[in-house]
Amino acid sequence: MGLKKMANIAARSLVWGKPHHAQWLITRKCNYKCLGCNVWKEQDTKELSLEKIKQGMDILKAAGIVELVLSGGDPLLREDIGEILDYAAERFVTTVYDNGSMAAKKIDLLRKVDFVTLSIDSLDENKHDFIKNVPGAWKNAMETVNILQKEGINVSVSPTISQVNLYEIVEITKYFTERGIPVWYCLYSYDTIQEPNQLFRIGKPKDEFIITDKEAMIKLCDTLLKMKKTNKQILITDKLLKCTKTLYTEEKRIWKCNALQSFLVIDHMGKIAGCHNQPSTGSIFDLQKEWKSKKYKELRKQYKICTKCTYLCYVFYSLYGTPTGHLSLALEQRKNASLLLKKK
Predict the structure, then answer these.
(1) Following DSSP, what letter does each residue of 310-329 receive, concatenated?
(2) What share of the chain is helix, strand, coil (3-state, %, to 5)?
(3) β-strands 271-273, 263-266 pairing
């Protein structure tokens, strides 16, 4: 990250009362058939134009957004993704998600982003291909990790923890972090709202993925907390791990959702909501007008008491999505600064 961008990001991070994180699901197109997901069953060829996306990003920057995650579907399937990434990287700490099938083909387009995150759920080829429901998915992902790392692109790996791979998460973590590749985690969750106006359908119930061995999940949290003391490539924070552990030890949520306050989500057509699980609240192009509205204030109250998901990204930004949260995060992750502070 260059010094000019870093200074701009830091200034926005310290502003109170504005959102700091946005996830933009810029396409509904996907080339995989992951068993715990239903995006591939409900694809849509319609999506915002490049100019509309640029306009939306300008609005997000003005609103105070610091970090922008581009996902989908697979965002790298968009033909104009290069221009989208360039525009985003100039304005935000930018992460782009890939299922492991496209990033190696788009290397030159990825050089300006801060992170490319690949979904790799197992070191077992057959198990990974089973989860992704695509033959060859594991080979594609593993080759892509190696290629991106050799090319000097900040690549990280994000396994989704489920009952299917629960017992090998530590092994996955060691394998990649010992090779200098940071690991972030998702937690298997699924959408609990079924209504026509839901912003974006992603997860679906899959019994074999639901974590039933709670003791093993608790042990995993403890193990990762211990590993983090010497392994700085593990990007999940202590606070989030302890929060997750409490969810399984006491079946208790010790956080309140900060959706539409510290973070928000946008779909492929520019509709916006606090999270993808909730009904659309309108358009990104009305964000500045609506941000302090009575409507948004009432929605934030509803989100605060919502207990309908355990998507770790939403939990994370509920825990850290304020200037004081950013400060505590910076203090915890200060030794990881080298992951971002490089010349672009």
Answers:
(1) --HHHHHHHHH-SHHHHHHH
(2) 45, 10, 45
(3) antiparallel
Vertex 192, ends 316 and 132: CA angle to 5°?
75
Q: Which has the closest alpha carbon to 60: 263, 324, 280, 340?
A: 263
The string of pLDDT tens digits covering residues 274-310 is: 999 889 999 999 999 999 999 999 999 999 999 888 9
Give counts: helices (H), strands (E), the chain. 12, 10
**Where are the strands (E) in the chain, listed by range?**
21-25, 67-71, 93-98, 115-118, 155-157, 160-161, 186-187, 263-266, 271-273, 282-283
Task: Provide the 3-class DSSP secondary structure of residue 198.
Answer: strand
> For the segment 131-150, what is each residue's pLDDT rounded down to a tens digit?
999 999 999 999 999 999 99
- Lookup: tokens for 276: 């993808």
CA gap 312, 269 in Å, rounded: 24
Contacts with 86 (C-beta within 8 Å, 6 or more apart), sequence order: 112
CA–chain centroid gap for 23, Å, is: 7
Most distant CA atoms of the chain, gap in Å: 51
Predicted structure pTM score:
0.91
